[in-house]
Structure formats: structure tokens, C-alpha cells
Amino acid sequence: MTQRGGILTSLHVRPILVERVIAAQLGDPTLCRIRGEVESGTRTDYTIMEDEALVTRTRLCVPRNNDELKREIMAEAHCSTYSMHQGSTKMYRTLREYYSWPHMKGDIAK
Q1: Per-residue b/e over 72-109, b at no fewer than 16 CB within 10 Å?
Q2: What global pTM score does this model have?
Q3: Spans of all domains in the chain
């Protein structure tokens, strides 16, 4: 998957983290509903990738209520040599290229 490769290259995200996001998607009611709409063709603003990842544009959808997973993603980005933490705005700009979740900017600022 091109998008996933981009995530790995830019953030050095461990493949297991991406796999955990995909597994969490499958257990999230909202993302399951969106997945069903994509599969039925009634939703076109999301895509299901070959590895079953649900994405919006090129961004991997992270379940809204999985705070542990979101913290892990932020920690990975914070420690990445490519992002060199320069504040929450910089981290948000970096992460929003690869991930999507409701209230993402506020979660990063916290």
C-alpha cells in the first residue's frame, strides 16, 4: 500500500502499530458503519485499502474512543527523527498527513 509505505517512511511507524489501527477499526461501530457504506458504494469519501485499512484520502482512520492507540501514535511521532517535536502545531501538521480522528488537534495539544 503506497499510503502505508509513506507512513512508515516519514514517521518510522512500526508495522505492528498500523496493524493495530486496522484491527481497532474493525471493532469500532462508527468506522464499521462507514466501512459498510464504502463497500455498498454509498460512501465515496473513504476507501478500503488492500490490507483492509479504512482511509480518508490518504489518512488512516483511528477510532475515536481508542485513547491508548492515539497516545501511541503521538508518542511515535514525537520520538521520530523526522518530526523532531517542535510543539503541538508541528506535530499536528505532521500527523494529519497520515492519520485522522475526531478532535485530533486538541488531543495533540494536550
Answers
A1: bbbebbeebeebeeeeeeebbebbeebbbbeebeebbe
A2: 0.72
A3: 2-109
CA distances from 83 to 13, 89, 94, 95 (A): 12, 11, 7, 9
Q: Can you read off the three cell numbers belonging to residue 72?
A: 501511541
User: Across-strand partners of 54?
Assistant: 48
57 is written with which cell numbers? 484520502
Cα 90 to Cα 22: distance, rounded to the nearest angstrom: 25
Phi first, then psi: give them for residue 63, nearest 5 degrees.
-55, 135
Report the Cα 108 to chain-centroid distance in Å.
Answer: 13
Q: What is the pLDDT along the chain (110 residues), one digit of tens a residue?
A: 444 444 444 444 457 888 999 999 999 999 999 999 999 999 999 999 999 999 998 899 999 999 999 998 888 777 764 545 467 888 888 888 889 899 899 888 88
Neighbours of 7 (CB within 10 A): 25
